[in-house]
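Pipeline run #58 for the internal structure catalog. This entry was flagged by the ingest filter as a single-chain record with no existing model, so it goes straight to prediction. Upstream metadata was stripped on purpose; only the residue string is passed forward. Reviewer on rotation: M.T. Logging verbosity set to normal.
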Amino acid sequence: MSALFGYVHLDSAPGGEDRLARMGAALACPFDEPGGLWTDGLAGMGTRRLARRPGTSRPRTCARTGLVFAADARIDNRSDLRSQLKAAGVVPDEEDDAGLLFAAWRRWDVSALTRIAGVFAFAAWAPQTRRLVLGRSPIVAPPLHYHEAGDGLAFATMPRGLFAMPGVERQLDRHTLAMNLIRLSGEDHVTLFAGIRRLPMGCVLQKEAGRPAVIRRWWEVDLSRAPSPGRLADHAAALRDLLAHVVDEQMPQAEPAALMLSGGLDSAGIAALAVRARPRVLAFTHVPAPGAGIPPAGWQVDESALVKDLAATCAGLDSRILPFETGYPLDGADHMLRAQERHFSNIGNLDWMITALTAARESGAGVMLTGIQGNLTASRAGGAPFLAALAARDWPGLVREFSMRRALSAGVLVLPEPLRRRMRMLRGHLSTATARPWRDHHPVRPAFADAQALDAEGPVWLSTYMPPPQADERHRLLHLLRRQDVGLADHAFTHLTGVEWRHPLADRRVAEFCLQLPNRLFHHQGEPRSLMREALRGLVPDSIRTSRIRGLQAADVISRLKAHPGPLMADLERLDRCDLACEALDLGRMRRCAEGLLAGRDVPISILVGGLTMGRFLCWLEEEGVR
């Protein structure tokens, strides 16, 4: 795990190593080991690394062309990439992951990225052409931020590296803050800091003299092609083989293997494949405290019985049930927000994630596999089969998929919005049945929402959180894979625990394979997630493989808030003293929610939890001098 930082000033010669040294010093926590610095006056580049994670970190140069390259990279298809380089007559100067990426870049430039499976961010400076390129891997990538001013551009893994540059001020982007308060992220590149941009995943940025930086997407999936034909069993076998290969590649070679095991279909599948690749695999499972609450129909709170079923059938799976969390849910929030320089919205899961990663580290593991993003790739639901059959005039399929509920869902799409809201209310979707749900169910202060013209984002909110049923879900899933930037949280967790997340179901090859398959394979004969279920036949117990009950995350967050009234009210009092929180948050409504919760009444918990997590971030910003 490395930090990258650097600059180009194509119209002048800046201060050189002094500026690089300041950027590096700003990133010294947690990147506690210096890597190296390089500068030629017009440009400079530096690296640091996290000492407790293996790897090398320094800028590399090509003696023939003068190309300078720095990367934070994990290459999963190392063997395949070496073979491609050898066939092209390229001998890497160094065999570590960053060295292989550098060799591929020298040979194929941007097209090299399509040959690589893994997680990476890099910077490449060509002094002969005065061209800077920044790039990130798709789906999962280390963070990479930048600031452009005139003919200059500075970049760093985290924003604090950029704030070390002269003239880069720490200012809050209030419109993006308002968007985040209603759980929208805004455009791909925006951050909560004005003037600081994040390079989107699967993209490269190119900066040349006399021209503004240009961002283009290098990772594309052509969904216009006809989906691959074939039988469910054949594609399931191919998926199983691909997943086994990816899991084997992502398993650590020199340290114990660990994984996060929920008991659901995705993580259970990864676990079953992992024990085939290694003789012993540690598996960590969270169980909520007793009395965490009654889950909605179709959901369950405690999946430990399923984990026991899996452990009984998978020799080599060392299953460990973590003690349930009893502390105040926001106890670890300050550490997390400082690590990722933004709020952490999934606060109900934070404690047990940290507990699992810490337990893995204490057991000697430095890598933990997960089933994250499976719902967007191998375990996707297959869209709306009723609409797909109707659009294709598949009359037998239409009869098979028909139900009054599905017919009503399709009919709702043509109703005027007021009637659609009434239908949503009748069907129990109370959070979206109001005229402005993006305001009514989030902690944004009304005056702040007005000042930031937040109602203009209403259609985006509805399409995000209440998308209409689609015959072909692949376009929406590809959009989400491009937007859900999990690498920032991964980076922060590694910072805090020294353990690296890895997500086999978010592998680029798995995503491309699944997006090119017809939706019918994922909802075969009325069975949702049918491709993954068939792929795991014989690998996981049927109690997991055939179950349609989903695990409910953070089920105990309400009971834990109620159990700690003192810290809860102290948080609200702290927000009353924070000018940014008073400007942006509806503190009166949050306080009423807290009082109702402690009195045992049903309250809109999203208003309270969302406001508390963002409030912690705003307090930190104000302490750091951000206005």
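catalog note: DSSP finds 27 helices and 21 strands in the chain.
catalog note: Residues 232-250 form the longest helix (19 residues).
status: ready for reviewer M.T.
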